[in-house]
């Protein structure tokens, strides 16, 4: 199918999103932008969060990684399920009890103003890097598949995508995103299922025979029982649990949707329902990866990693399936990028510059400030997408999880210290501790062969980082009066 026809489908899809945004953003206020007036439907939030959590990286990288690692990623997914239960049963009750707009206000109430600013700053850093890494991967696929044929340079392609996202999130914020994410998650899952069905028919398999064929290639191996390996199953499961606790439960983007649900019970139902669906969806992506590699062998396709799904979908599938792939890919892209820009705007406005605390600002001035911040973050996204373009890593899911290990560790340490102890920190020491912990982790990661021999540090770097932050806070703490 020609790039022009593919691009016309992209534009039609975007116009649909704009229509949804127009209906949901009418009479919008700062409260609806930040927390959806606390009136979001729990099931819509749960369903839409699937798209936010998976993103284009999962859509491309998880199937692509099967050729190298088999189903080992599912070890992390098992950890995710444990983490979501912890978020639902421990963190959500805390956030609802304190009636928070920004979850980092908890740190202010519990530890102090510097701790609050530190937690919010590390969230902004974490989400900015993670979201732009996800955005880069999908923009690159769209560039290669469609936009390069029009002679459009990569930076212009990235700008076009960001302007699209900006247009439908600029007014409605969370209130709009709850609905657009639901639409986009539907598109992504339909694309996943249709691609699986096509590959099964092309290979003359049913689900059972396909599973057997994938198993014969060794792709269905899940558990790594070597305790020295960085993918040892216990390390992966524990890391997966803490990745979820931090990247969902201590992340303003994910939590602002949850706390937009009217009641705690509804929000908990959302979280637990979402966790079970996510488990199944990730298994489907791994199954898709196995089918892609079987298909690649049968057709002589040499692409691997992040390239295999786009190459097979756009060059070896019928035109209709290629369109579905592109729309599903965009559906995977937008929820991760739109929610990130909205959450970063919310966190910076509320936590860093404090527009809600500034009584000298009226509603019109607050809205103008929020919109300026929204535009600035869109510009930052464009710059960082170009940085990832220059780096051009072959597997972005590994890059994102590595970034999370460094940037979410201090957030994990801060929240854990506040929840698990009754001690009070010397607040002015907190920023220094939060900076030193990732630096120590970087040193440990760089020189791990010299320090630990054959033992490899993997995703548990996040836990080590959080523990170092926790110990540092303990050292500069005192008993509460």
The best one-word shape is globular
What value does the Rg take, in angstroms?
A: 22 Å
Number of contiguous helices = 20
Helix content: over 70%
Largest β sheet strand count, sense and barrel closure: 2 strands, antiparallel
How many strands appear in the DSSP assignment?
Answer: 2
Order of helices and strands: HHHHHHHHHHHHHHHHHEHHHE
- Low-pLDDT runs of 5+ residues are 32-37
Strands in their spatial order, largest beta sheet: 1-2
Summarize the structure.
With 481 residues, this protein is an all-alpha fold. The chain has helices at 3-24, 30-35, 42-69, 73-98, 105-110, 113-145, 154-169, 174-202, 207-216, 233-249, 252-258, 264-299, 308-315, 319-352, 363-391, 396-407, 409-420, 430-446, 448-452, 461-475, and strands at residues 423-425, 477-479.
